[in-house]
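Why do we care about 3D structure at all? Because function follows from shape, and shape follows, mostly, from sequence. That is the central idea of this module. The next example makes it concrete: a single protein chain, its amino acid sequence, and then its structure expressed as tokens.
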Amino acid sequence: MTEYFYISLFAVVAIVVVGALLALSTVLGPRNPSAQKLLPYECGIIPTEEAKGRYPVRYATIAMLFIIFDV
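And the structure:
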């Protein structure tokens, strides 16, 4: 019974430490977004147009078939 207590105590302490570190980094971290930082990075090339968001469903079907038969 005491083994489970120590293991669960260790897990709780680990979760608390991780949560505290995440909270501290959120609270204390610098927040200075600029236009340069918000641009997507493309190997140093400034993007000239918006990314195309959609692709045909046929492509997804072919990709899934490739994954299935490749294995």
